[in-house]
Amino acid sequence: MWRPGNWSTPSPQPPRSASPPLQINNNAIPQRSYAPSPLGRRPTTGPVRPPLNHRSSMLSLAGGNTPNMSTTSLPGQLMQQQGVGYRKAVSMPPPPGVRDPMGVLEGILGVPVGVKEKADTVDEIPKLEYGEGIDFGGLSLEEFVQAGTGDGNSPKIREYNEQSVEDYENEKDKFQDLHRSIKACDEVLKSVESYLSAFQTDLGTVSGEIESLQNRSMSLNKQLENRKAVEKLLGPIVDDIVLPPNDVRRLVEGDVNDTWVKALHETDRRISAIEAKDPAKVKAVREVLPELEKITHKTIERVRDFFVSRIKALRTPGANAQLIQQQGFLQYQQLFHFMANHHSQLAEEIAQAYTNTMRWYYSTYFQRYHKTFEKLKLHTMDKNDVLGHEEPTRNGGIMPSLKGSSGPTYDPFNIGRRIEILRNRTAPIMTAYQAEDDKTTHYPEYHFRHFNAALIENGSSEYTFISEFFAHKKYDQISYMFNQIFEQAFNLGKAFTKSLIDNTFDSLGVLICVRLNQYALFEMQKRRIPAAEGYLNATNMLLWPRFQIVMDAHCESLRRVNTNSRMLTAVSGPASRQSAAPHFLTQRFASLLQGILSLSAETGDDEPVQNSVGRLRSDFEAFLTKLSSGISDPRKRERFLFNNYSLILTIIGDTDGKLAVEQKQHFETLKSAFRE
C-alpha cells in the first residue's frame, strides 16, 4: 500500500535505517519517491509543505561498483536534520483553506486509502535520534552490505525484498489507477490554479479601484472643506440679501399678529443689511432692490391700516384708552418704528391723528367728570365765616357754576378730620359713576383732590405711553404732543379749581388744596414727567393768591373788631362784671392757627404762610391788648391775657414743624410775661 512519502507492506517492516536496496534477479532497482508533484503545487498563503521523500532516497544502496560510491559514512548531524525535517513535513497540518491530500485521494479513488490508526502511523515512522548514524567502518556501501551477510540477516532481507516486489506486482493495477487519479487531480488543481490566478487578477483590479475611490474621496473632502470655508464667508451675506418667500407672503397676505411682527422684524433687518451694501459692487443687491421696494410699500400700507383701525377704536363710546394703548399700540411698537424709518411723513400723519383723537378723548371724559362734580354738595364759606365776625351766619349758598345746598353745621376754623385727605393721598379716585350716586356734602379739597388726581394720573400714563411709543421723537416734540393732547383737559382743570376757590373764604380748604397740588408736583418730578409741571404751577398760581386774600380777610376782620364798641364793652363793663376768662375769638384764632401749623409741618421758610401767620398773629395780639385795656384791675387784666395765651398754647401744643416751634415759643414768652 502506497503512502505519500512512505512505502508500506503487510509484513512487518525492518528498521528503516538498515533497509537494503531492492533486487530483482540480482539487479539492483533504484528506489524513487512517488510524492505527487501536483500536491506540492497547490496555492497556499502559508508556508510551503516540503516534499515527502523516503529516507532511502538519501542513500544510494545500489549494488556493484559505481564511480559515485561513497567510501565514507554520512555525518550523523546531517541525517538527524533530514530526519527531523521529514517528521516535521509529515506531521505538519495542511495550510488554512486547503483540503487534506488523503481526503482528496479518497474522493478521487472512491475507496478508502489504507491508513492505520493514528497511533500506529506514528509508530511506523522511523525515528532517528541524534547520534543514531550508521558506522560504515571506512567501507563502501557494497563492502558494507557484503560484510553484513555473515551475521545471519541476509536471508531475511532477501525474503523481505522479494515479498515487497511481489506485493507491488500484485497491486500494480491499483498503483496505475492511483497514477491516473493523481494526473486527474493534477488537472483539477491546474484549473483551480488558473481560477485563483484570475481571482488574484480581479483582486488587483478591485484594489486599484479602491485606491481610485480613496483618491476621489480625498478630493471630495478637500472640495467640501473649501466649500465650507466659502460658505462661512458668503453665508451671512447671502442670508442678509435673500428674502424668504414665506415671510414675504405673510407680510402681504397674513393677519397682523405676533408672527407677522417677527416676519417684519426679520425683513427690516435684511432691508437694513441690503441698503448698507453698494449696489454697484454687488449684483444681487441690484436685482433685489426693486422687489424690496415693492415689499416695503406694501408693508407700510398694511401698518398704516392697522394703526388707523386702532385709532378708530379709541373713539368708540366707553373705550378703555389704556387697554387699547397696551394691546393695540405698544404690543406692535415695531410696526410704527418701521413706518417711521421708511416713511416718516406717513408716521407723522398717524401721530397727528392719534394726538387729535386722544385730545378729544380726554376732553370728553373730563367734561363729563366735571359735570358730575358740579352736582355734588359743597360746604360754602363766604365773608361771614371770617375770624372777626361776631355771629357768623352759615347759609348754604351756591357757588358760581357749582350747585349746592345747605349742609350740616360746620366749623370753618377747626381742621378736625379734614387733614386725613393729605394722609391718604393714595386713596382710590372717585369715578364718575360713584360721584353721581354720592349725596354727601364735602369740603372744597375733596372735589379738588379727586378731579386733579384723575387728571394727573391720566396725564402720567399718557406721557409714559407717548415717550415709549414715539421713541423716535425728541423731548421737545414729545412735550409738545403731550400739551396738545391735554390742553383742553388742563384748561378745564384750571377752570374747575378757580370755581372752587374763587368765592370761598375757607383758608384751611385752600391751604389743603395747595398741599395736594405740591404733592402732585413732587410726584411728577419723581416719575420724571415734566410736561405736567406747567399745569401744576398754574394751579399754584390760583391757590396761593386766594389763600392770601382769605388771610387778609381774617386780618381785616380783627381790625374791624377793634372798632366794634359792642364787642369791647363785653369785657370793659362795670368792675363787677369784668371777667378774666378767654375771649371766644381766642378759641377761633387758636383753632385756625393750629390748622395752619398742622398743614405747614413739612414746609420751608420761603412760603407765604409764614408772613400770613405773622400778620394774623399781630392783629390778634392788638385785638387782645385793646380788649384787655378795658379791664380796670391790673391783676385781672394780666390774668385775662395769661388765660388767652395759655389757651392758644394748649390748642397748638401738638403741632410740629419749624413754624409751629416758632409760634409756640412766641406765645410761651407772652404767657410768661403775664404770669402772676
Description:
The chain has 676 residues and is mainly alpha-helical. 63% of the residues lie in helices and 2% in strands. It contains 24 helices and six strands. A two-stranded antiparallel ribbon has the order 1-2. Strands 3-4 form a two-stranded antiparallel sheet. It has a two-stranded parallel ribbon with strand order 5-6.
Summing up helix and strand content along with how strands pair, one would put the structural category as mainly alpha
Mean residue pLDDT = 77
Largest sheet: spatial strand order? 1-2
Quick one: overall form?
Answer: elongated
Kindly report how far apart the N and C termini lie: 169 Å
β-strand amount: under 5%
* Alpha-carbon Rg, integer: 67 Å
Report the biggest beta sheet as strand number plus sense, adding barrel if it closes. 2 strands, antiparallel
- List low-pLDDT spans: 1-90, 115-132, 152-160, 392-408
- By DSSP, the count of extended strands is 6
What is the helix content?
55-70%
Q: What letter string, H or E per element, gives the SSE order?
A: EEEEHHHHHHHHHHHHHEHHEHHHHHHHHH
Q: How many H/I helical runs?
A: 24
